[in-house]
Amino acid sequence: MALIADYLVQGCQMLLTLLLAPLLTGWIRALKAQLLRRRGPSLLQPYRDLSKLLRKEVVLAASASWLFRVAPYLIFSAIWVAASLAPTFASGLLFNWTADLIAIVALLGTARFFLALAGLDVGTSFGGIGSSREMMIASLAEPAMLMMVFTLSLLAGTTELSAVARFMLTADVGLRVSLALALMALVMVAIAENARIPVDNPATHLELTMVHEAMVLEYSGRHLALIELAASLKLLLYLSLLGCIFAPWGMATAGAGLTAYLGGVAIYVAKLAFGGFLLALFETSIAKMRVFRVDQFMGAALMLGLLGTLLLFVSRSL
Amino acid sequence: MSLPLLLGLLLIPLAASVYAVAAARQPDCSRRVYGVTLAVAATGLGIALAHLLTASTPETLKLPLGLPWLGAHFRLDALAAFFLIVVNLGGAVASLFALGYGQHEKAPERVLPFFPAFLAGMNLVLLADDAFSFLFAWEFMSLSSWALVMAHHQDPANARAGYLYLVMACFGTLALLLAFGLLAGTSGGYDFDTVRASAITPGFAALVLALALLGAGSKAGLVPLHVWLPLAHPAAPSHVSALMSGVMTKVAVYGFIRIVFDLLGEPVLWWWGGLVLALGGITAVLGVLYALMQHDLKRLLAYHTVENIGIIFIGLGLALAFQANLMYASAALALTAALFHILNHSLFKSLLFLGTGAVLTATGERDMEKLGGLIHPMPWTALAFLIGAAAISALPPLNGFVSEWLTFQAILISPELPQWLLKFLVPAVGALLALSAALAAACFVKAFGITFLGRARSPAATQARETDRYSLAALFVLAALCLLAGILPGLVVDGLAPVVSLLNGGARLIPQHHQPWLTLVPVVDVKSTYNGLLVLLFMALSGTTAAVLIHRLASSAVRRGPAWDCGFPDANPAFQYTAGSFAQPIRRVFGSVVFQARERVFMPPPGDLRPARFKIELHDPIWERGYAPIAHAVVAVSTRFNYLQYLTIRRYLSVVFGALVLLLLGMVLWR
C-alpha cells in the first residue's frame, strides 16, 4: 500500500511539473507586460497556444529527415524526466535516487544535443546559426553548472538533490561565501540556458540576435508545441533547482501525509511565483548583450563556480 | 588452461598473414582472412571473459623462446584479461565490418597480410610477462600498424604520416626500453616477477614514471606527444583506424598501468598523481579543441581520441594520488572510472570510425564540407553513428556518461587529500573535464550534423547508398553495447572489480548487482546514485506516451513544403552552415587564445572583379613551438656534419682511432 502511495506521489510530481510549466511562462509574460505598462495576455495564454498548436497540422520542410520528427519527443521526454526527478514540493520521493544533479545536468545536455541537431537538419542558415551559438553558450554554461554542483556536493557530501535539500535545512549550513558564489553561478547559468535576456531574447524574431528561436524556426504544429512545452519545463526545472537548493523551506518529506504534501505544493507554487517575479523584474531592467559578449558572461559564471569549489577544497568552513 | 589456449590461438592469425602474402590478389582472400580474424578474436574474447569472471589466480607460462638466458614468460591475470576483452572485442567487430568493407580495398595485398599480424601483436603485448617479450610484441604491433598506415602510400600526406609515426614509435619504444632497464636494475632481472619483487629507489622510480609517460603516452596520444596520431590514424583503412584509435591506444594505456601500478609497486609518491592528473586535464581540453577545428571527419575522430585518453589519465592520476595517501577505497573508484572509460572509448570510437568507413565507401569523401544529408540515403548508418556520437558526448542513458559520472564522483571525494597542490589541482582538473565534456558535445553536433543532416553539398553525397549488411551488423553490435553498458553499468563495474583489486592492494568497489533496480552506488556513505536503466525507461515511457496521446487525441497530419527559413529559403546547398561556420563561435572564444586563430577578410574595392576571400589562420602551438624547433635543430646539425659522409678511408680510420682513444681515456678517468 505504501509503495502504491509512493508511486502516486511520484506520478503527481510528474504531472504537477507538466501542468505548472505553461502557467509559469504565462505568469512571467504577464508580469513583464505589466512592468512595461502593457495589459498583456491572460495567464492561461500559453495553454491556449499549446492546444492550438497541438491541433494544427505539421508543415515539414522537404529536406527534413526522421531525426527532425523524432527530436521533439526526445527533447520533451529528456527535459520532463529531468524536471520530475528534481524535488519540487517534497524531498525523498521514490525515484529521486535515479538521477543525481550531475545526471540532471546531463539530461538537459541530451535535450540540447538533439535540439541543436534538429536545427541543422533542414539545412537552412538560420538553423545552423542557432545550433552553433547554442553549443558555444552551452560549452561554457555546462561546466559552470557542474562547478556549482561540485560546490554543493562538497558541502552536502552528495550530489543527490533530496539529500542536498535536507542538508540545506540543517543548522550547520549558515552563511557561506562558497554558497553565495554557487548561487550567482546557478542564476547566470539559468538565464543563459533558458534563453532569457541578456543572453537571448525569448520574444524576439529579429533574425541575427536569436539563438533558441533560430533553432526551432522550422518547427510547426505539434512538434513546436512539444518544444515550447519543453522550454517551459526547463524554466520550471531551473526555478525548482534554485528553490530546492537555496530555499528548501517548507518542503514536505517523503511519507508525510496528504496535508503536508498539499502544504508543500502551495509553498512550491509560491516559490515559483516569486522566482518568476524576480526574473521578470530582471529582464525588464537590462538590455540584451551581443553574442560575443556572452562568452565573458558565461566565463564569469564558470569562474564563480570554480572559485566556490576551490574555497571549499581549501577549507570546509568557507 | 586459458593461457596456452590463447597463445596457440595467436598462431592462427600469423598463419593467416602468411596466407595473405601469397594469396592477397585472389578474390576470396579478403573474406577468408577477415573471417579467420573474426573467429580468432571472438574466441579470444570468450576465453578472456571467462578468465576475468571466474578465475581468481593468474596463469603463467614459460616458453624456451627469445633470449636464451631469459626465455619467454607469459602471464594471464585480471588486468591482461580485461584488456584482452577490449582488444578482441574491437578486433572481432572490425573484422566483421571488414568482411563487407574490405571488398572495396584497392590494394588488398598491402592490408590483408598486416591486419591479422597487428591483431596478434596487440594480444601478445597483453600476455607478455618479461621485458623482452613485451618490447618485442610492442614493436611488432607498432610495425604492423605502420605498414597498415602506409597501405595507401602514394598519397604524400600518408607517407608523411607514416614517417612521423615511425619516428614517434621508435622514440616511445626507446623510452620504454630505458624504463625496463631501470626497473631491472644492475642485477638484470628482466622477467616481471623479479621486477615486482625488487625494490627501487624513489629517484629511479620517478624516472621510470617519466619514461613510462613518454613511452606509453606517445603511443596513447598524451599531449604533447600526440602529434602523429591525428595524421596516422586517418591514413589507414577505416577498420584499421578503428583498431588503432579505439584499441591500440588502450594497449598503450595498458603498458602505463602495468608499469606504474603493477611493476613499480610501493611506495607511490603523491606528486606522481598530480603530474598524471595535470597531463590528463590538459590533454582532454586540448584534444577536443583541436578536434573542433577539423573538418576531415577521420582526423576529427583521431583528435577526439586524444581527449578521451586525457579523461582516462585523469582517472589514473586520481587513483595514484589516492594510493599515495593510502586511501584505497577512493582509489578503487578512480580506477574503476578509468577502466570503464577505457572500455567505453573502445566501443564508441570503433563505432564512429567504422561509421566513417561506411560514409567513405558510399561517397569517397572524408571532408565534411563536401558531405551532408547522408541521413536520407543511409538511415541505418546514420542511426548507429548518432548513437556513437551521443555516447561519446557523455549523454545519458548511454555509456559515456557513466564513466564520466564515475570520474566526477572520484573528483568529489578528493578534498580529503592532504597535499595543498592537489587541493588546487583536482578542482581545476574537474573544471577542465567538465569543459571538455561540453565541448565534446559541440564537436559531435558538428560531426554528425554537418555530415548526416542538412542537404547534400556535393554530387558524391547525393549519390550515396546504404552500406552493406556486414558493416551494418558491426555498427549495430557496437551501438547496442554502448546502450547496454550505459543502462547496466553495475554489471560492468562488478566485472572490473578483479582488475581494480589487483591494482589497488585488494580494495574494490562494493558489489553492484545486489542493488535494487541495478542502481550504480559507487560509495556507500556518499549516497550519490545513478540508474541508467530507469532514466531510459522514464524517457521511453514519457516520449511514447506523449507521441501516442498527441497522435490519437490531437493531430497526426503532416504536410511537406519548402523550408521556411524566415521567408528566404535558399535553393543552393552552399548556403547552409558548414563545419567551419559551425565552429566559428567556439573558434572565436577558445581558438583565439589557444590557436591564435585569426580571420582575414579580403574585400575587393568597388569595380574590382576579383572575388572576395575569407581566410582562417590557425597555429598549432605544440607543433610550432615544440616539434618544429627540434626538427630544425636536427636538420641544422646533420647539414653541418654532412661532410663526414665524403671522407677518404684514411680519414675514417683516424676518426675511428680518435674515438677509441677518447673512450678509453674516459674509462680511465672514470675509474
Secondary structure elements and their pairing?
The complex is a heterodimer of chains A (318) and B (671).
Chain A lengths: L1 H34 L9 H11 L2 E4 L4 H20 L4 E2 L9 H21 L3 H32 L4 H9 L7 H17 L18 H4 L5 H26 L5 E2 L4 H27 L6 H24 L4
Parallel strand pairs in A: 2-3
Helix pairs in contact in A: 1-3, 1-9, 1-10, 2-9, 3-4, 3-9, 4-5, 5-7, 5-11, 7-9, 7-11, 9-10
Chain B lengths: L1 H22 L5 H26 L4 E5 L8 E5 L1 H24 L12 H14 L3 H19 L6 H29 L7 H6 L4 H19 L8 H7 L2 H26 L6 H24 L3 H28 L3 H36 L15 H14 L6 H14 L7 H33 L6 H4 L6 H19 L1 H15 L28 H23 L3 E4 L17 H16 L3 E5 L10 E5 L3 H20 L8 H22 L1
Antiparallel strand pairs in B: 1-2, 4-5
Helix pairs in contact in B: 1-2, 1-4, 2-3, 3-4, 3-10, 3-13, 3-18, 4-5, 4-10, 5-6, 6-8, 6-9, 8-10, 9-10, 9-12, 10-12, 10-13, 11-12, 11-16, 11-21, 12-13, 12-15, 12-16, 13-14, 13-15, 13-18, 13-19, 14-16, 14-18, 15-16, 15-18
Give your account of this protein's structure.
The complex is a heterodimer of chains A (318) and B (671). Chain A has 318 residues and is an all-alpha fold. Chain A has one domain (2-314). Helices cover 71% and strands 3% of the residues of chain A. Chain A has eleven helices and three strands. Chain A has helices at 2-35, 45-55, 66-85, 101-121, 125-156, 161-169, 177-193, 212-215, 221-246, 258-284, 291-314, and strands spanning 58-61, 90-91, 252-253. Chain A has a two-stranded parallel sheet with strand order 2-3. Chain A is globular and about 60 Å long. With 671 residues, chain B is mainly α. Among the domains of chain B are: 577-617, no CATH class; 646-671. Chain B has 23 helices and five strands. Chain B has helices spanning 2-23, 29-54, 78-101, 114-127, 131-149, 156-184, 192-197, 202-220, 229-235, 238-263, 270-293, 297-324, 328-363, 379-392, 399-412, 420-452, 459-462, 469-487, 489-503, 532-554, 579-594, 621-640, 649-670; strands spanning 59-63, 72-76, 558-561, 598-602, 613-617. In chain B, the strands form two sheets. A two-stranded antiparallel sheet of chain B has the order 1-2. In chain B, strands 4-5 form a two-stranded antiparallel sheet. In chain B, helix 6 packs antiparallel against helix 8. The longest helix of chain B has 36 residues, at 328-363. The mean pLDDT of chain B is 92. Classes of the chains: A mainly alpha (318), B mainly alpha (671). The interface between A and B is large, with 87 and 87 residues. Strand 1 of chain A pairs parallel with strand 3 of chain B.
